[in-house]
Amino acid sequence: VANFCFFSSVYLSGFFLAALSVERYLGVAFPLRSKSRRRRRLGVYAAASSALWLVAMGHCSVVFAA
């Protein structure tokens, strides 16, 4: 169980790093558009982050209970 949770968090951190890299690329490639849209996307990013963590923790809890 501990190994599964460990690897789940490793994969999630990799996904978050990839998402951050895409956001930074868009900020460099399209600076004006990215700056004007940044405030609107913060809620979407928070929801996506929460959803990923809930899925990971839910999956770990199912494995732990079984």
UniProtKB/TrEMBL annotation:
It comes from the Eukaryota. The chain crosses the membrane at residues 6-30, 42-65. Keywords: Membrane, Transmembrane, Transmembrane helix. One of its GO terms (molecular function) is G protein-coupled receptor activity. GO terms for biological process: cellular response to fatty acid. PROSITE patterns: G_PROTEIN_RECEP_F1_1 (PS00237), G_PROTEIN_RECEP_F1_2 (PS50262). Pfam families: 7tm_1 (PF00001). The keyword Transit peptide does not apply. InterPro entries: GPCR_Rhodpsn (IPR000276), GPCR_Rhodpsn_7TM (IPR017452). The keyword Transmembrane applies. GO terms for cellular component: plasma membrane. Gene3D superfamilies: Rhodopsin 7-helix transmembrane proteins. It is found in: Membrane. Residues 1-66 form the G-protein coupled receptors family 1 profile domain. PANTHER family: FREE FATTY ACID RECEPTOR 2, FREE FATTY ACID RECEPTOR 2-RELATED. This is FFAR2 protein.
